[in-house]
From TrEMBL:
Keywords, alphabetical: ATP-binding, Nucleotide-binding, Repeat, Transport
Keyword Transport attributed: yes
Keyword Lipid biosynthesis: no
Organism: Durusdinium trenchii
Taxonomy of the source species: Eukaryota, Sar, Alveolata, Dinophyceae, Suessiales
GO molecular function: ATP binding
Protein name listed in UniProt: ATP-binding cassette sub-family A member 7
Entry-linked InterPro entries: ABCA (IPR026082), P-loop_NTPase (IPR027417)
Amino acid sequence: MLFLDEPSAAVDAGAKRHLWKVIKSREPDQTVVLTTHSMEEAGALSSRMAIQVTGQLRCLGTPMHIKHKYGTGYQLELVIAPQASVGDGFASKQEELESFVQGHLSPLAQLLESHAERHLYQLPPRSEGLKLGKVLQAVEAHKSLGISEYSISQPSLEQVFLRFAKEQYEANRAAEADAENEHQ
């Protein structure tokens, strides 16, 4: 059994890849326990992961299981053809897209980024009743909006980790506020 704590911290990219290769080449009966804040490292080296928040184990499973269970929904990227026409009654392509996403996909969808012809939306978790098949059918049916490309992606391990880190930060702030109120 090998225990490693932040093994690739402050290591250049080439040395990091070599270290990862050595760790992955272990025998099947050998176990490596790794602690890290790097979700890239955790995803590359782990067959099972655990995430702790304020000293409490919050999740345990494969990277795919953790992303599926604790991710905050899918992201939908829509790319509009530069020459796409704007529909009647809409001030902009952005408003037309917003109306499509809110009306046909989910009123809980949120625009994360919009740059030129590229628009990125955060879709609600599948537990909110949104099915990927429905999203794909709706986008295909509304390509007349000028949608030239689209993609749906699962949340990354980094996004899941950051969500847990935010929870820890908020819990720490609440504890500090409670302590301050007791002293007054």
